[in-house]
C-alpha cells in the first residue's frame, strides 16, 4: 500500500497539479491587485461608487454582496482572458520558430521520397 501511495504521489499528473495550484494562487494575487487597484478605480472614475455591498440590502438580505461577487468575477475573468491572449500572442512566434523543420529532416524526407519513386519505377 505504501508503494502504491508513493507511485501516486510521484506520478507526473499529481506533481503538475500541485505546481498549477501554487502558480494559480500566485497568479490570483496579480489578478486581484490588477482588478482592485487599476480596473475598479478606473470604473469608479466613470460611474462613481462601485461598492454595492453596503448600499444594496433589503430587510437584512444583503444581495449587494452577491451582485458585487458577480461583478468581481466577470472583471477578473476578463482580465485573465486578456492576459492569456497576450501571453499566447507573445509566445506564438517562439513556437512557430521551434516548429520549423531543420535541414536534416527536410533532407531525410527528400531521400525517402526519392527512394519511394525509385521503388515505384522498378
UniProtKB/TrEMBL annotation:
GO terms for molecular function: mechanosensitive monoatomic ion channel activity. SUPFAM superfamilies: Gated mechanosensitive channel. It is found in: Cell membrane. The chain crosses the membrane at residues 12-40, 60-84. GO terms for cellular component: plasma membrane. The keyword Transport applies. It comes from the Bacteria. Signal peptide: none annotated. Its main location: membrane. Keywords: Cell membrane, Ion channel, Ion transport, Membrane, Transmembrane, Transmembrane helix, Transport. It holds the Pfam family MscL. It is a multi-pass membrane protein. InterPro entries: Mechanosensitive_channel_CS, MS_channel, MSC/AndL, MscL_channel. Homopentamer. Belongs to the MscL family. HAMAP family: MscL (MF_00115). Channel that opens in response to stretch forces in the membrane lipid bilayer. May participate in the regulation of osmotic pressure changes within the cell. This is Large-conductance mechanosensitive channel. The gene is mscL.
Amino acid at each position: 500500500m505504501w508503494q502504491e501511495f508513493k507511485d501516486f504521489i510521484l506520478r507526473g499528473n499529481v506533481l503538475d497539479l500541485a505546481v498549477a495550484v501554487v502558480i494559480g494562487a500566485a497568479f490570483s494575487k496579480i489578478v486581484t491587485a490588477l482588478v482592485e487597484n487599476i480596473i475598479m478605480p478606473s470604473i469608479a472614475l466613470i460611474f462613481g461608487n462601485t461598492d454595492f455591498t453596503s448600499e444594496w440590502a433589503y430587510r437584512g438580505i444583503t444581495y449587494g454582496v452577491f451582485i458585487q461577487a458577480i461583478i468581481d468575477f466577470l472583471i477578473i475573468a476578463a482580465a485573465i482572458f486578456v492576459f492569456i491572449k497576450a501571453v499566447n500572442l507573445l509566445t506564438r512566434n517562439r513556437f512557430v520558430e521551434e516548429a520549423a523543420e531543420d535541414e536534416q529532416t527536410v533532407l531525410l524526407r527528400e531521400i525517402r521520397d526519392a527512394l519511394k519513386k525509385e521503388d515505384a519505377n522498378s
